[in-house]
Specification:
Elements: E1 12-16, H1 42-52, E2 56-60, H2 66-77, E3 82-87, H3 96-103, E4 109-112, H4 131-139, E5 143-146, H5 153-162, E6 168-170, H6 186-194, E7 199-203, H7 216-230, E8 235-237, H8 250-263, H9 270-285
Parallel strand pairs: 1-2, 2-3, 3-4, 4-5, 5-6, 6-7, 7-8
Helix pairs in contact: 3-4, 5-6, 6-7, 7-8
Length: 293
């Protein structure tokens, strides 16, 4: 941490990944995505965090397996800057509640994320069969990370309304279609979700949805919608690194975030920006300080 920031609030990247291609058995990313078709490990991210003044991260799963979740938890225990892990469990499996209880014994597990965007049924999460797993997550103080596209938002609203005691965060702002300049029905559907006080949203993943529309003026209407719906206390900044490398770089996205927060109406204050860049993630995920490794 730079010396001049030691007394300030922690800055947290609330969404990043690691992976090893040899463990993915041909799963995404494909070779055609050359910028990210390689291994990404803690030593690759560490210098970017240091340069950006980022104190810690939330490491998020990218394979729908419990085995990967256990591997990420083991990696987190030896990676000082990883403050928490968001893993995966099949919420409809007969043993889902027992699996959640077992994983939750590790204090570094902070949340779970079904990969809803990849499932054939857009209403999968609205099935009452997910209720026991959701109740177990709430019981163990875990966060529900929602990896969704705009078309999943109505079902996600049904699920969230059914589980008011389960903290939830929408990953990548539900991936609006920025490349086409389209905001509806995404904006209204997300506002309905934001009306539920336990729902938060990650200010992440926007550049990879932007196509050629990657300037501040292109992203600003979408960030303004998030700002108006969630406010400064329920937005969390994330890099989505290394997926970010398909559209930009770490320092550039961090700088663009600062520009966007200065451009919203009303502009974010220094304290509000600090909350989005770390404080809100610390609170939502109940993150602790750095650990000796």
């Amino acid at each position: 941490m730079p010396a001049g920031r030691r007394s300030q609030a922690m800055r947290i990247d609330a969404h990043q990944h690691f992976w090893r291609l040899a463990e993915r058995a041909g799963a995404w990313p494909p070779p055609t995505l050359a910028a990210i078709h390689r291994d990404f490990e803690p030593q690759d991210l560490a210098p970017l965090l240091q340069a950006g003044g980022i104190d810690g991260t939330v490491l998020v799963q990218s394979l729908p397996t419990v085995a990967e979740t256990r591997r990420l938890l083991a990696l987190a225990r030896t990676t000082r800057f990883v403050r928490g892990v968001v893993g995966w469990v099949d919420m409809k499996a007969p043993d889902a509640v027992d699996t959640i209880a077992d994983l939750a014994r590790d204090p570094l597990l902070k949340g779970l994320r079904p990969m809803l965007q990849d499932l054939p049924d857009d209403d999968w999460i609205a099935d009452p069969a997910t209720a026991p797993a959701a109740q177990a997550m709430a019981r163990y103080g875990l966060v529900f990370d929602a990896l969704v596209l705009p078309r999943h938002l109505p079902a996600l609203l049904t699920f969230a309304a059914r589980h008011p005691g389960l903290p939830m965060v929408v990953d990548h702002a539900a991936k609006p279609t920025i490349a086409r300049g389209q905001r509806q029905p995404w904006q209204d559907d997300l506002a309905r979700l934001a009306a539920l006080p336990q729902v938060h949203c990650k200010l992440s993943g926007l550049l990879t949805e932007a196509g050629d529309r990657t300037q501040v003026e292109h992203l600003l209407p979408y960030v303004q919608a998030l700002w108006s719906s969630f406010g400064p206390s329920r937005l969390l900044w994330g890099s989505d690194w290394p997926v970010l490398q398909l559209a930009g770089d770490y320092a550039g996205w961090l700088a663009m975030t600062a520009a966007l927060l200065a451009a919203v109406t009303p502009p974010a204050s220094a304290d509000e920006a600090a909350a989005i860049l770390g404080g809100n993630a610390v609170t939502l995920y109940r993150l602790q300080g750095p650990r000796p490794c």
